[in-house]
Amino acid sequence: MTTGSLITLVAAVLAFIASVIAASVTLYNARFRRFARERWWERRVDAYTKIIDALSSLVYYYEEHYEAESQRQGLSAEYKQELQEHWRKGYAEVKRATAVGSFLISPEAAAALEKMWRDKGKDVHPDDWFAVMESDYKAASDALKAFVAAAKRDLKGP
Asked: What residues does each domain of the chain span?
C-alpha cells in the first residue's frame, strides 16, 4: 500500500469517526432539548395546579361565609378556624403567583389574578362585611373561571 493510499484511508476513517461523533452529539442534544421542554411543561402544570387549588380555597372560604351569612346561620369556632386556614393558604399562594406574574403562567392567566386583586372590595364600603364578602367571592370566582380557561389554552401538551 502506498503512502498516499494510506493517508486517504486514515482520512476516510477519521471522517467516518467524526461523522459518528457528530451524529451522536446531535442525537444527545435533541433528546436533551426534548427533556428540557417536557420538564418545563411539567413545571408549568404544577404551577397552574397550585394556583387553581389556591383560588379554589379562596372561593370555598368566601362561599361558606357568604352562604352562612345570607342564611343567617352561624359557623362553629372549629369550622371558622378550618375556613381561615383555607383562606390563609390560598391567599398566600395567589399573592405569590401574582408577584411572579407570567414567568410560568401565561400573561392571560396572570392578568386574571391581577384583575381579582383589583376587583376585591371594589365599590363596597369597608364596614359592610356582607358586601365585602360578596365582592371578594365574586372576584375570586371570576378569577378562578378565567384562570382555568387560560390554563386549558396554555397547557395543550409538551
From this structure: 40-154
